[in-house]
Amino acid sequence: MRVAPCVAACLATILRKGAANGWAGVVVYGCVRDVEVLATIEVGIMALAAHPLRSIKRGIGERDVPVTFCGVPFVPGEYCYADPNGVLVSTASLL
């Protein structure tokens, strides 16, 4: 099992690139760490919790595929809205 050397730095790098590409935010179905670093980036982050341990780097990933978090489907092309109270998913723009 290989442990990622710096998961927060990797997430921070991804978020900085996302901010440069106009991302408003990300939803993480898991924990994040080094939240004080992530808070300095102009992209909103909604995660289940903060946790001090590094994640296990598996080197896998997919994009533009439907996923389900807590019974709620997130489908590419749909709209996701979040605030400190929670997350809402919609098939149509609400703004």
How does this model look, in words?
This protein is an alpha+beta fold and 95 residues long. It has two domains: 1-52, no CATH class; 62-95, no CATH class. Helix content is 19%, strand content 33%. The chain is built from two helices and six strands, in the order H-E-H-E-E-E-E-E. The chain has helices at residues 7-20, 35-38, and strands at residues 25-32, 44-50, 67-69, 72-74, 79-83, 86-90. A two-stranded parallel sheet has the order 1-2. A two-stranded antiparallel sheet has the order 3-4. The radius of gyration is 14 Å and the shape is globular. Residues 1-5 have low confidence and may be disordered.
How are the SSEs placed, and which strands pair?
Blueprint: H1 7-20, E1 25-32, H2 35-38, E2 44-50, E3 67-69, E4 72-74, E5 79-83, E6 86-90
> In percent, how much strand structure appears in the residues?
25-35%
Radius of gyration: 14 Å
Mean pLDDT: 86
* Quaternary state of the chains: single chain
Q: What's the main sheet like?
A: 2 strands, parallel
Shape: globular
Poorly predicted runs are 1-5
Order of strands side by side in the largest beta sheet?
A: 1-2
Query: Ends: how far apart?
Result: 45 Å
Helix content: 10-25%
Query: What is the helix tally?
Result: 2
Structural class: alpha+beta
Number of beta-strand segments: 6
